[in-house]
């Protein structure tokens, strides 16, 4: 049976590397938008030793090692949880901006 899908990559895996940490990026599906950008869909997870971010849709730039999402996202670290309407990870993962209405819970 030939199964045709609109998915370029099943279960794509990437990483964002900087001097402080390595952030692993996984998803169920990926579609190439151009040579540098890939649209990650379904159960997108950013995971490092310091935090995780879960969302459903992200545009990941492989060259700049940056990512932006305008989908509901949940950031979790040891004593912090941030729910937002999206995020922007840049500067090789050193900086994260949370977009839209956001809720911060500190424990």
What would you note in describing this structure?
- By secondary structure, this protein is an all-beta fold.
- It has one domain (9-106): Sandwich (lipopolysaccharide transport protein A fold).
- It is built from no helices and twelve strands.
- It has strands at 9-10, 13-17, 22-26, 29-32, 37-47, 51-61, 66-69, 73-77, 80-84, 87-90, 95-98, 103-106.
- The chain is globular.
The overall pLDDT, averaged over residues, is 93
- β-strand number: 12
CATH topology: lipopolysaccharide transport protein A fold
Low-confidence stretches: none
**What is the succession of H and E elements?**
EEEEEEEEEEEE
Kindly, what is the distance between the CA atoms of the first and last residues, rounded to a whole number of angstroms?
52 Å
- Count the DSSP helices: 0
Shape: globular
The domain tally reads 1
Cα gyration radius (Å): 14 Å
Can you summarize the main beta sheet?
12 strands, antiparallel
In CATH terms, the superfamily is Lipopolysaccharide (LPS) transport protein A like domain
What fraction, in percent, of the residue positions are helical? under 10%
The percent range for strand residues is over 45%
What is the level-2 CATH architecture name? Sandwich
- The CATH top-level class label: Mainly Beta
């Amino acid at each position: 049976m030939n199964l045709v899908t609109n998915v370029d990559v099943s279960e794509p895996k990437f990483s964002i590397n900087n001097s402080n940490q390595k952030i692993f990026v996984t998803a169920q599906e990926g579609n190439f938008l151009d040579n540098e950008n890939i649209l990650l869909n379904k159960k997108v997870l950013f995971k490092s030793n310091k935090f995780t971010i879960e969302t459903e849709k992200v545009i990941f730039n492989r060259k700049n090692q940056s990512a932006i999402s305008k989908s509901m996202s949940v950031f979790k670290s040891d004593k912090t949880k941030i729910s937002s309407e999206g995020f922007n990870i840049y500067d090789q993962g050193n900086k994260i901006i949370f977009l839209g209405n956001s809720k911060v819970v500190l424990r």
